[in-house]
Design a protein that fits this description.
Elements (H helix, E strand, L loop, with lengths): L37 E5 L4 H12 L3 E6 L2 H13 L4 E5 L5 H15 L4 E4 L14 H29 L3 E6 L12 H23 L4 E7 L9 H9 L11 H15 L4 H14 L3 E3 L5 H6 L1
Parallel strand pairs: 1-2, 1-4, 2-3, 4-5, 5-6, 6-7
Helix pairs in contact: 1-8, 3-4, 4-5
Bound molecules: nicotinamide-adenine-dinucleotide.
The site of nicotinamide-adenine-dinucleotide has 31 residues, from helix 1.
Length: about 300
Amino acid sequence: MFSDTPTSIQAPTLFHASPTLNVSDSEVRDMREFKGKVAVVTGAANGIGRAIADVCAREGMKVVLADINKEALARAEAELEKAGSTVLAVQTDVSKAEDVEGLARRTYDAFGGVHLLFNNAGVMTTGTVWENTLSDWRWVLGVNLWGVIHGVRTFVPLMLGQGTEGHIVNTASMRGLSRASSNGVYCVSKHGVVALTETLYYELAQRDAKIKVSVLCPGAINTKIVDVPERRLIEHQNVPGERGMTPEDEETLRELRHGTRTGMSPQAVADKVFDAIRDEKFYIITQPETRFESRDG
Ligand SMILES: NC(=O)c1ccc[n+]([C@@H]2O[C@H](COP(=O)([O-])OP(=O)(O)OC[C@H]3O[C@@H](n4cnc5c(N)ncnc54)[C@H](O)[C@@H]3O)[C@@H](O)[C@H]2O)c1
């Protein structure tokens, strides 16, 4: 997969065990001890992001919750505070560079640094790639790909400047490693996240940086991710320039909903993410057995 990999850097493996860490007992990595450190989670109000935020809090981290959904964000903040965690909630649209920069400013003002960054916020849409409107493409690429780009451009220089160990997890999908009919815009966005994160891995490794990177590629996970495109298609039914629900969309949404409802729990995903951070595993493939199904679309 990485033919032009610099030979001194070990390529991460996709479906096998990760390379073993080359550390002696006396140099156990700092990023296996999370207590007191700072985590930023985008898309933190629901689903996988919320489950990751819960683990961060359980580990004793200070948690910055970022989400576009004000009400859900306030709920998550209240629940985590009630459980005794130190929390900062920042309403953020990750597709906007200035919002992500504001998120970084608020985080550094409150806690003075970041150790774990989860670029997790994401949305999806249905439809063929020729039927998807410009607004579909801009929305999904804006959140899924530009959201991660803004996160990397904003936080990596700050985290490097801190000089401390850190870890960045970018959420892609199995659909960033395969393709699926009627979900093409999403696949394009997630392939971009995989490519961006693989490149980030090498660029940091070439500089011997203390920041490690992983790309999270879940299969179907039991969240409400399918509700958002459904609502959007219904709202757009008679809006000029937008696309309303078609029978094909209904069928795709039905299949996606069945897949997510019977999928892995977001809590199990969050636990796998933390195992991967501890083990410095690059590819976090939550359901490796589903990869060929995904390829078959
Ligand atoms: N659920 C799955 O089956 C599945 C599978 C593979 C990958 N993923 C990925 O996992 C990530 C989390 O998805 P989820 O399943 O938890 O979905 P979810 O809908 O439960 O949660 C996504 C969160 O992102 C927030 N969000 C949406 N647009 C945003 C924006 N512009 N700025 C900030 N926040 C925004 C939403 O408000 C929501 O709280 C996404 O990147 C998704 O693509 C999910």
